[in-house]
């Protein structure tokens, strides 16, 4: 006679053997899960990385480009024998402010990108200068810089004319402005150091005003 059908034992008892459709469903489930994990990871990476790689939304585009080691050295050279509080306009990941704090300055960085500000605060704490290196989320056009005697800016050509006017109105005679990558269009620098992308220009407000008729 015909042999009896053999049943497979399942955890809950006896049942029929799984057909080809069950394997297909299982494969689809794993495919959906893998797609969800990969997609979620990409979204998370994009959310964290995008603020570091693209400029914040603002009228004048000021992208984040990390300062080179040589640029930092040139900025510190221009601060030699200087005193008073320092501000970095568009402080990025905080490396200029942290370097100034290590030189004994009370240094502040203003940056519109919140991710960079939080990262800068973390770096300052890691370097042990969190008491003298502070970072704030702010649009540079909404900040008054009159309380600072040392101003550092990594700008772009489109913003320099307007920033030149703002700083000349707000800063006192004993202030020094240090421009990196791009000089101010109408000011004549008192000191220049470095070359190429690492060039740094220093402008003393007393000298600038003394040249005016």
From TrEMBL:
It is found in: Mitochondrion membrane. Signal peptide: none annotated. One of its GO terms (cellular component) is mitochondrial membrane. Belongs to the ANT/ATPSC lysine N-methyltransferase family. Its main location: mitochondrion. Mitochondrial protein-lysine N-methyltransferase that trimethylates ATP synthase subunit C, ATP5MC1 and ATP5MC2. Trimethylation is required for proper incorporation of the C subunit into the ATP synthase complex and mitochondrial respiration. Promotes chronic pain. Involved in persistent inflammatory and neuropathic pain: methyltransferase activity in the mitochondria of sensory neurons promotes chronic pain via a pathway that depends on the production of reactive oxygen species (ROS) and on the engagement of spinal cord microglia. GO terms for biological process: methylation; positive regulation of sensory perception of pain; regulation of mitochondrial ATP synthesis coupled proton transport. Residues 1-20 are annotated as: Disordered. It is a single-pass membrane protein. The keyword ATP-binding does not apply. The chain crosses the membrane at residues 30-49. One of its GO terms (molecular function) is protein-lysine N-methyltransferase activity. This is ATP synthase subunit C lysine N-methyltransferase. Keywords: Acetylation, Membrane, Methyltransferase, Mitochondrion, S-adenosyl-L-methionine, Transferase, Transmembrane, Transmembrane helix. The keyword Ribosomal protein does not apply.
């Amino acid at each position: 006679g015909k042999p009896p059908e053999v049943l497979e034992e399942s955890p809950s008892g006896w049942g029929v053997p799984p057909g080809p459709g069950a394997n297909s469903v299982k494969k689809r489930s794993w495919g959906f899960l893998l797609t969800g994990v990969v997609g979620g990871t990409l979204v998370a990476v994009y959310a964290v990385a995008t603020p570091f790689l693209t400029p914040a939304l603002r009228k004048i585009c000021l992208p984040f480009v990390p300062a080179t080691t040589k640029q930092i050295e040139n900025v510190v050279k221009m601060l030699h024998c200087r005193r008073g509080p320092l501000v970095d306009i568009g402080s990025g990941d905080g490396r200029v402010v942290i370097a100034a704090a290590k030189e004994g300055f009370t240094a502040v960085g203003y940056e519109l990108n919140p991710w960079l500000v939080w990262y800068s605060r973390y770096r300052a704490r890691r370097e042990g200068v969190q008491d003298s290196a502070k970072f704030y989320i702010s649009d540079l056009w909404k900040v008054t810089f009159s309380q600072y005697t040392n101003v550092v800016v990594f700008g772009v050509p489109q913003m320099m004319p307007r920033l030149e006017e703002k700083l000349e109105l707000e800063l006192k005679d004993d202030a020094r402005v240090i421009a990196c990558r791009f000089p101010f269009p109408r000011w004549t620098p008192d000191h220049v150091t470095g070359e190429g992308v690492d060039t740094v220009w220093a402008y003393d407000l007393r000298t600038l005003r003394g040249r005016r008729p």
